[in-house]
Design brief:
single chain, nine-stranded mixed sheet, globular, 22 helices, 3 domains, Protein-Tyrosine Phosphatase, Chain A, UDP-N-acetylmuramoyl-L-alanine:D-glutamate ligase, 548 residues
Length: 548
């Protein structure tokens, strides 16, 4: 009787430990957008860190078993019942103490996360699916090992160790259900767009390897001078992000809907186009971004071109002439099309001249087939001028006047974490370009920092999701940094190796290179070396699933 009660208490305790450990792996699955393949790749890359807690627990449990065995040999005269309880107590604590420490550590880590775990309906379903998988695996293990005290702890030790794998199994297990739920919401968004009150809604699709979110905000601001505009918020650019915006925010009074369309694999954009059905499409760029999943830039180009293929029959295409891959798409395109650029070469429909960049923003002249007009923007960098020119091409097509366009451009505010100047208490100028960086964007950020007076400091972990080219592209970034900044604070001991190499190749001052473990250490180092008048560039802040 007492033995059964002890086992029941043990089961409850072990179950609670497992349940409290789930959020850590659930958070990583959420950061990988619930994509099993991407989550698996993350497991492979971070195996040492992922399975650390389980490995430590196994080691401690092994030591405790040896201790128990030693006690039974060294203390033969202790009553059997008392020795049994002593041994059980040691084994019990050997399991619980390290796991409780891990629960507390991971909870603290999640609190400090840049993108905290959100218990959405999908996350909750995955959570409970994991618990169901636990019961199935536990039953299989118990059949093999038995149901005594020691076998029970061994079984749960194994399950805790394999929890990251169990999360992947759970995600596969509920995959068909999630597809059904997603399709229900997608069809709901499609039906809403097909209602008669949205018959005249102008739908614009924006994609690109970089610049799409900035372009979305710029376009929304300019078009708002004439239309009632709704755009997907923040960096919402997935299928379900678009679905949620349409279902929850789109109203009959909206005249324009701007859909940002991101892609981590082929047919992501096609899926969005299938229900949005945009009449206007702009590709801001095609470059070396997400090569980890796309492998080649040609595959990136194919993915981005899904927007053009997904336009309505009478759709309009807007493309930059200064991007090789975009220009190739322009030459093949059969829809009505507009070409924009940073100069008049190639006879673009809209281009820019007289660009003057400064620490306060930019001034430039827009040139069209019919007229030219001067504009001013608060946005920093030449690449933002290019984004504006693309938006002007769309605005002209939609009938905005010169005055409306000029007013709209002047009103555009910096997008958060994209070359945004932040207030500082110590007299430094802080430029926040923390959103995921790419080879072109990082070089543009370095060009921007050159516009400022004073000592220049960069804080960066480098770039990710660049596949086989990642090391060399980060090394190239290091070389470019050496010619643009005075002090480099590199985040991540392992990740920063190519950046260091690039800096040293350009004979960068060794004493001005600081390598730190994480962003907290970077900000502490910055506080110790910065002074009034310094310009600090935060270039890229990696997602939590890329922490070392």
């Amino acid at each position: 009787m007492i033995g059964n009660i002890v086992l029941d208490i043990l089961f409850i305790g072990l179950f609670m430990i497992y349940v409290l450990l789930i959020p850590n792996t659930l958070h990583m699955m959420q950061l990988e957008s619930y994509h099993t393949k991407e989550y698996w790749n993350w497991l492979i890359k971070n195996g040492k860190k992922v399975f650390r807690a389980g490995a430590i627990q196994f080691f401690i449990y092994l030591i405790s078993m040896l201790v128990v065995f030693g006690l039974t040999k060294l203390l033969p005269n202790v009553p059997v019942i008392l020795m049994t309880w002593i041994c059980y107590g040691i084994l019990y604590l050997a399991f619980f103490i390290p796991n409780i420490i891990e629960i507390c550590r991971s909870k603290k880590e999640r609190k400090q996360a840049k993108k905290p775990l959100k218990y959405t309906a999908r996350a909750k379903r995955l959570y409970f699916s994991n618990i169901l998988i636990l019961f199935i695996l536990r039953a299989l293990l118990m059949d093999y090992l038995g149901t005594d005290f020691i076998s029970t702890i061994i079984a749960y030790s194994f399950l805790v160790f394999t929890l990251p794998i169990n999360m992947m199994i759970s995600n596969i297990f509920i995959g068909p259900t999630e597809d059904l739920i997603n399709n229900h919401y997608i069809n709901s968004a499609r039906r809403k767009l097909n209602k008669k009150e949205y018959k005249n809604l102008i739908k614009i699709g924006i994609t690109g390897s970089y610049g799409k979110t900035s372009t979305k905000y710029i376009l929304q601001t300019i078009l708002s001078e004439k239309y009632n505009v709704l755009a997907t918020p923040e960096s919402y650019n997935t299928t379900m992000g678009n679905v949620r915006t349409i279902r929850e925010k789109l109203m009959p009074e909206h005249q324009v809907f701007i859909s940002e369309m991101g892609a981590r694999k082929r047919y992501d954009i096609q899926e969005i186009c299938n229900f949005v059905r945009p009449q206007i499409g702009i590709i801001t760029s095609i470059g070396e971004q997400h090569l980890e999943t796309f492998k080649t830039i040609e595959n990136v180009a194919k993915a981005k071109s899904e927007l053009l293929n997904g336009l309505t029959y009478d759709g309009v295409v807007v493309l930059p002439k200064d991007n090789k891959y975009c220009f190739e798409l322009y030459q093949k395109e059969k829809h009505e099309k507009y070409l924009y650029g940073m100069d008049g070469k190639g006879n673009p429909d809209v281009y820019v001249t007289d660009i003057k960049l400064s620490a306060e923003g930019s001034t430039f002249t827009i040139v069209t087939k019919k007229e030219k007009f001067s504009c001013t923007t608060k946005l920093l960098g030449k690449h933002n001028v290019q984004n504006i020119v693309g938006c002007v091409a769309i605005a002209l097509h939609l009938g905005l006047s010169k005055d409306e366009i000029v007013r709209g451009i002047a009103k555009v505010e910096p997008v958060p974490h994209r070359l945004q100047i932040l207030p500082s208490a110590n007299g430094t100028i802080v430029i926040d370009d923390a959103f995921n960086s790419n080879p072109v964007g990082s070089k543009m950020a370095l060009e921007v920092i050159k516009q400022f007076e004073g000592r220049k400091i960069i804080i960066t972990p480098g770039m990710v999701e660049l596949g086989e080219k990642e090391y060399e592209l980060n090394k190239e970034f290091g070389r470019a940094m050496a010619e643009s900044v005075d002090i480099a604070i590199l985040v991540g001991i392992k990740r920063s190796k190519p950046l260091e190499e690039g800096l040293r190749e350009k004979k960068f001052e060794e004493n001005n290179i600081y390598v730190v473990n994480n962003l907290d250490e970077a900000t502490k180092r910055l506080a110790s070396i910065s002074k009034a008048g310094d310009v600090v560039l935060f270039e890229n802040d990696l997602p939590d699933n890329y922490n070392e």
